[in-house]
Structure formats: C-alpha cells, structure tokens
Amino acid sequence: MKIKSMFQSSGVVSGNKTRKPLMMTMACCLGAALALPAIAAQPEAKDYPQRPIRLIDPYAPGGGSGVVARLVTAKLSDAWGKQVVIDNRPGASGAIGTEIAMRALPDGYTLLMGTSGSIAISPNMNKVPYEPLKDLIPITQTSGQSMLLVVHPSVPINSVKDLLAAAKAQPKKLTFASSGTGGSGHLAAELFQSIAKVSLTHVPYKGNGPAVFAVLSAEVQLGFNNILAVLPHVNGGKLKAIAVTSPKRAAAVPNVPTLAESGVTGYEATSWNGMFAPAKTPRPIINKVHGEVVKALNLPDVREKLVAMGSDPVGSTPEEFYAHIKVELERWGKVIRDNNIRSE
After folding, report:
1. For a surface tag, which of 81, 172, 297, 337 has the fewest beta carbons within 10 Å of its beta carbon?
2. Rounded (10°) angle between helices 283-297 and 300-308
3. H or E element: which one contains 86?
C-alpha cells in the first residue's frame, strides 16, 4: 500500500496526469546517461599527445616525401615536447606504408605522409587495399612541387630536343627509373611518351630514393623525379636537369625550361605531399595536428627551405585537401586508362 502511494505521488501510476511528462524526463535522463560513455571516450585534444607519434613515410629514405616529413616532424616535436618519429615503409608505390597507416588505431599516434603517388595514383591501378577518401582522413596538404627530368652527365643528352631525337632514332633503348609501377615518376614518363610519341624502357625501383640513386650511378640513363629529391644532385653537378614537369618554370631552377615550352605541348605533371590520419580519428585531434602542421609550414625557416628546394608550402584545410584529392584521383585515373597502364 505504501509502495502504491509512493508511485502515485510520483505520478508514475497509470492515470495520473503527471505520468507522461515525468516519463519523458526519465527517458531523456536515461538517454543522456547512455551517451556519457561515448562522450567520455572521445580523447581531449588538450591532452594530446601524451607519448611519441609515428609518422609513416610510405617510401624509402631519400625521397621527396621524406624531405618534407623531416622538416615538419622536427617542428611538431619541439611544439609538443613529444618525439614524432618517421617510419619508412616502402613498397608497391607507397601502397604498403599507406595500408599500415590505414589499419592503425585511430588515436592520433599513427599519422601518414601521403603523396600524389600513394593517394591519387596507386588506387587507380586497382591494386591497393584502401580507399583514400574513405579509409583515411586528409589533414592538410603540406606542399606541392614539380618533377625534374634528369639525365646522368655521361649521357649525351642536354635538352628535350636531344632526348626526343635519341628516343625516335632508337626506340626503347633509353631507360628511365621510377619509384615503382604506377608511381608519380612512372606516370610522368608515360604521359611524356604518349604526347611526344616516343618509346622508353621503364625500370621500376622500390622507392624514389633507390630510383634517384639508379640515375646517379648511371644504372639507368634518366628519370622523372620529385624536385625535392634531385635538386641537390643537380646543383652539385651529379645530374643534368633538362626540363621541369610543371606548367611554369620552378623558382628553384629558373633556367630549366618546362617540357611544354621544350616542344611537348600540353604536358603537365606535378606531385604533392600531405598529412593523413586513419579514418575515425577524433576531429579534435585532427584539428590539433592540422593547426600545428600549418603553423610549422608558415615558419620562415621552413618556408625558405622548402622554396629553396623547389617546393611550394600549402597548409590547406582538411576540406580543401579532400576536394583536391578528389580532383587528382579523377585526373590520374584518366592518364592511367588512356595509356593502358597495368599494375605488376
């Protein structure tokens, strides 16, 4: 009897006019209580990072992505007081390292330095176990740069005109190195052959670093390489740069003509680097990483170094970077289909 009276006084017993409002209030409270664990599970950005961070570079040491990664990670380590370690995981034109990053815990402690090759090109080769815009979160494009068409000094080719003449005289005799089938350098060379109507022989390597070394050692005769990776060798006289792949001349090598102005009309191929996180990484962490990376890219010493090496600092928003990647996927997909390029 006391129990019934208690429920009657609280308005829970059927027929009481206060039953409906009170039940709605209880439901709301229950819903809020159930939501609490999810809210509590979201890491606080102010507490991040609490331990070292791994930044995966999906190429061998010595490549263009590594140059940008070293500059940025040094500034992040200083800002956070936690070491940001570069972890090189080369292979399959960047696909191996990218997959490792994609499968990592989405807690902000594994990040990826993606490139146009690993993000926009490899997925179009139908050989990667990830979808860039689904399995990764774009944080910011760190830089964009042209590639240089370089030749070993021992090769009697000093201009694009010389290259075209030699390639037409002896098809397939000239060899070019790339970071792997489907990599940026490979597709840049395929686009060149398609427009210029010449035939070269492709020699793929496991990463841009080994590809650059192959040209340096005269194991192959030429290469389309990220300007960040080869400019020091060009400046040191160890490689000859005969053209840039961008639509305009690069500020770092103003005397080197573009392929378009050298007779390969309509040619354009550029590469880029950018920071990514595994899908489902909390937005507060994405925002914090984005803010620090952009801050690093805007530091005078970082900007000066990148520009001197032939790279343009970017620092886009996650949304801007997402849109850029979407366009790049479509553009390189067309190049691959038009030239019937197959993965190996």
Report:
1. 81
2. 70
3. strand 84-88
**Domain end call among 192, 225, 244:** 244
139 and 281 in a single domain? The answer is yes
The 3-state DSSP class for residue 248 equals coil
Amino acid at 238: K
Nearest to 227 by CA among 203, 204, 243: 243
No. of helices (H) and no. of strands (E), the chain: 12, 10
Task: For residue 202, list its beta bridge partners.
Answer: 176
Same domain, 135 and 209: no
pLDDT in tens, 167-209: 999 999 999 999 888 778 889 999 999 999 999 999 999 888 8
pTM of the predicted model, to two decimals?
0.72
Q: How far apart are CA 212 and CA 194, in angstroms?
A: 23
Which of 67, 72, 131, 133 minimizes the C-alpha distance to 290? 72
Place of tokens 């664990």: 37
Please answer whether residues 124 and 329 qualify as being in contact, where contact means their C-beta atoms are separated by less than 8 angstroms.
Answer: yes
CATH code where residue 238 lies: 3.40.190.10
Q: How many domains does the chain have?
A: 2
Summarize pLDDT for 26-49 with one digit per residue, the tens. 444 444 443 333 333 445 678 899
pLDDT, one tens digit per residue, over 80-126 is: 999 999 999 998 878 899 999 999 999 999 999 999 988 998 898 86
